[in-house]
Amino acid sequence: MNNPGGYDMLYNIITGINAFLWGWPFIIFIISIGIYFMYASRCFPIFHFYHIIKHTICSLWSPESKETFSKREGTVSPIEAGCIAIGGAVGCTAIGGVATAVATGDPGAIFWMWVWAVLGMIIKCAETSLGCYYRYKNEKGEYYGGSVYFIADGIGKDMHFPTIAKYLALLFSFGFVAQFLGGSQVFTIAEILNRSFGFDMIIVTLIYSAALFYIIFKGVPRVASFAIRVVPFMCVLFILFGLGVIFANIEQVPHAFYQIFTCAFSDTAPIGGFAGATIIQTINDGLARSINSNEAGQGSSPLIYGSADTIHPVRQGLWGSFDVFINTIVISTITALSVLVTGVWDSGQFGATLTIMAYNSVYGYPGVVLIGLVAVLFGLTTTTGWFTYYVSIIQFVFKNHPHVRDHMTTLLKYLYPLPNIIIVSSIVLTGNGPDLFWTLVNITLVFPVGFNLLSLFFLRNKFRELLRDYKARYMGIGTIDPSFRIFRNTPPDK
After folding, report:
1. Among 120, 351, 384, 448, which residue's beta carbon has the most beta carbons within 10 A?
2. What is the pTM of this model?
C-alpha cells in the first residue's frame, strides 16, 4: 500500500506490529475473559438489564435521584462520575474510529464491536466495582480508586502476590500512559474542521489545547461540572440527528444488517474504494474500536468511578455497564449504520470524513456543522475525563508523599495538552492519514487492556462476592451476610 509522503516502510512496520499484537491469541484471550465473567455473573447485564437502567439513567427522575446526585466532601456524585466516564469514553472514536473500522475491516467489524460491547458490560461492571471496593481516601478526604488500586491491594496484599502485582501495575501503567500520548480526540476534531471548513489542523489543535487547559486548570470539580452539563446534551444531539440519517435511508437498513452479519465470518473482496479485508482484520478492527469507544477492560473509567459517593461498589458498577451500552450499542452503532446506509463506507475514504459524507448526504452543510460541533464536545469531554484518570494515578503513586503528589498534579495540568500538539503536528507534517493513525491507537490499547483483564481474572472471586452481596442487599436474591465488608479501605460513613 502506498502512503503519501514516502512513508511506506513506516506504514508497513506499524501495520505489521498491529497485526501481531492483535492476532488470534490476543483476540481469543480478551473474548474468553469476557465470556468467563458473563458466565460467572449468570449473564447479569442481560437478565438484569432493567435493573441497570432503573438505577442509572432512570434514577434521574425517580425517588432515587437523591442518591444519584449525592456527594460528600471529597467525592463526586454517581451521575457526575458517570458523565465523566461516558464523556471520557464516547469521544471522537464514535465519529472517526468506528467509521474507519467499517472502511478497513468491512461491515462485519460492527458485529465484533457488538460482541465486545455485550461482554464489556459485565467487564466494566467488574472493574468499576473492584475499583470502588479497593479505593483510598487521602488526607484531604478525597476518594480515589481504579485498576492500579485493586492490583496493588487485591493481588499484592489480599492474594499475597506482591511481585506479580508490581509488574502488572507497571505494565498496565505503561500502556495507560501510551494512551495519553495518542492524541486521538484532537486529531479527529482537527481532521473534521479541516475537511469541512478548511481550517488549519495545527491551528485547530492549538486552540483546542487552550480550551482543554482552561477546563482542567481547576481540577476534577470543574471537569465534573463541565461533564454533567455537556455529556447528556451532546449524546442526545448525536443520537437524534444520527437516527435522522438512518431513517432518511430506512430502505437500506435491512441490507446494512445483512452486510454486518455476513461479513463478520468471512473474507471480503474489494468493492468500490474498499480494498477488501480478511476475517482477522474484521475482528481486529471491530474489537479494537469497541474497546476504544466504551473502554471496557481498558482500566480507565474505574479511575473516576472510584471517586463516586456510592452506597455499594456494584451500584457504581451499574453505571459502568450503562456506560458501555450507551457508548457502543447506541452511539457507535448509529455512526456505523449511518456510513453503511448512505453507501459512503466503500468510497475509499477513512475516519471522520466518512461520517461527514453521511451527514452531508442528508442534512447538507448544516450536517457538516453539526458534526464539527459534536466532535469538539466529544473531544473535550474525553480529554478532560482522561485528565481525571491521570490525577487518580498520581494520587496512587505518590499517596505517601502528598507534597510531591500536589506538585505532580500541577505539572500534569501544564503538560497534559502538549502531546495533542506534538502528535497532530507530526501527522500533518509527515502526510500520514487516519488509517495509519487509528492503527497506532490500536497498538497502544494492547498493554492496558491485556494486563487489566489479566488482573480482573486474578480477582474474579472478589467480584463474585461483591455481586452476590449486592444481589442480596438490593435485589432480594440470596441471603445478606452482615459480616461482609462492602469497602475494603473506606467503610461508608452514612
Report:
1. 120
2. 0.85
